[in-house]
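Hi there, hope your week has been kind to you so far. It would help a lot if you went through both lines with me. No rush at all, and the record is pasted right below:

***
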Amino acid sequence: MSFTLKDGNTPFQFPVNPEEVNISRSKGYETVNMLEHGEFDFAQGEKVKEITFSSFFPKRYDPSYCMDEKYFLDPRVAMNVLNTFLISKKPLRFIISETGVNVPVFIVSLNSSFRGGETGDIYFDLTLRTWRDSKVEKVGSAASASKSGSRTDLKKNSKTYTVKSGDSLSKIAKLELGSSSKWNEIYKLNAKIIGSDPNRIKPGQKLVMP
């Protein structure tokens, strides 16, 4: 098994395999306040994965624990390569042989340390985040329509406004609805959030707009 970062066709192989690799996965949600029915969560798809592991760059090559010698680099040179990857705006490909891990990534965190009695060796902690190309579909396209369900439509049709310091319902009505006289329409939809006094809205409250 080997751990490799590829910049185009140029491989950078880690000389010592880490003892463990942690892969973090999670799912995103957006919370929307729906009229008088309270809050609803809408799934937003899988979040970007994080891959973390720790290892070290040895000063001297030792075949008992080091990988292919042809990829062996001086620890300072190896750290410079990782630092170059860290500031690069181009994704790399991270591959763990003999597994299903073969993904485009960015290096988002790189920490190094030295230990007494191990002169020349450099230890490091590395965090990678998987990269996905952003693809935006045309609004109203057949593909978008086929993927849209009733719950998605509800989310899109429910416009909200976050109260800021100095706001009032009449000010929000003028800004969002074109007439300050429509403040009562906003209050009716958000009475449970605002309370009995329509003049006591608070910064940070999310109001559903008509």
